[in-house]
Write a structure and sequence with these properties.
The protein contains ten helices and 15 strands. It is of the alpha/beta class and 415 residues long. The strands form three sheets. Strands 11-10-9-12-13-15-14 form a seven-stranded mixed beta sheet, sandwiched between helices. The protein has a six-stranded mixed beta sheet with strand order 2-1-3-4-5-6. It has a two-stranded antiparallel ribbon with strand order 7-8. β1 (82-90) and β2 form a beta hairpin. The radius of gyration is 22 Å and the shape is globular.
Length: 415
Amino acid sequence: MFKEIFAKHAAGAARGGAPLPGEACRTPSGRICRLCHASVLEYEAEANARDGALREFWRGLFPGTPIGALVRSPLGRGYRTVSKRKAFPVRGETRLGLIDAGGEAGHRPLDVAACRIEPASHAAVYARVGKSLLQGAARPLLPVIRYVIVKGNYRELVVILSVTRIDTGIVAAANSVSRSLTKSCPGVRGVMLYEDRSDGRYYLGTRNPSGRGSVRKIYGDTSVYQKFAGRGFLFPPLAFSQVNASLVDGLIEEAVLMLGLTPESDMYDLYCGYGLFTLTIGARARHALGFERTPEAIEAAEANALRPGSANARFFRSDITGETLTRLLSRMKPSDALLLDPPRSGTGPGVIECAAARRPGRVVHMFCNIDVIEGEIFRWRKAGYVPVRAVPFDMFPGTDDTEILVLLTPAAAPG
């Protein structure tokens, strides 16, 4: 529903959809890449179109709930700290191409020189890996490589080569690519192999961490460093991380205002990842408790909590289901607050219902997939909670996605 509304607003802003002059989002044959809006819209025009579309969309679903103005991204282009390319055959060669955000099966990747929503350093990595794959020492990678993934900050990068198997020949070929990369791309601080035999749509193979393959470090330090709200974080590349680091501080500030934590309240952080929100937003609470199922993420969260200023934080590895929350939230009080930032698919059965049964005073539900908002808010309302305020963040410029923070309170006291 939102995608159609946004398309209407964006089409008006694009003035007929003519490509912007001199942009690099083209295939070698000159074909325009239309996987995102950046080829035909400058950022300010796109943000204005998104803001208008969001208001129209929100009024249709939740006419009594206010929504704030779109919080614009400090980096409207070149913002991504995570990007990927899918390997695909072309006339006996292997090239690296862009695919749509959903990665639907059968979608043919587009071989583009660069992407406007990615930093130039990412394009340099993909160009160098593409050339290296055609050289003799790296050719054993050709039949096994699935994706090339870049993660990092705006200065340092870690490169992940996703392959269907790892053996001595593949390691030697990856070493050849690594030497070429580090020689020509000084921002690359680490290179690693990730084994994925699933051949599925996800670039790390599966959403289930228990089904993930093995990892082999090829070069350097493969930890990713980010600094948010004045605090440094380290986490492994396999852990989920925000793709737009330029907007995360603003996201944290808004969540702090919504939750209204006090030294007497506890904060519960579901899907806490490497501890980003638990250790920043939760610093204002008496206790901050983070819950996450992914082993590498929870290990990173515990390590990040060892730094000064984290005495009130604790982390727990657990599946997040209706059954597990009965135990995990057993000590929650009405004075406590709940934050949840679930995956794109939304929460699982019973999660919202079990959380609502504990009656936290305030809930902030973060949505990175606007398509699930209607169903999730319906479940909150059925469980006795009402949305009282929403603030959208332009976390994914160029795409049809928008991050939205929604504050919910018990229906008996909506103010």
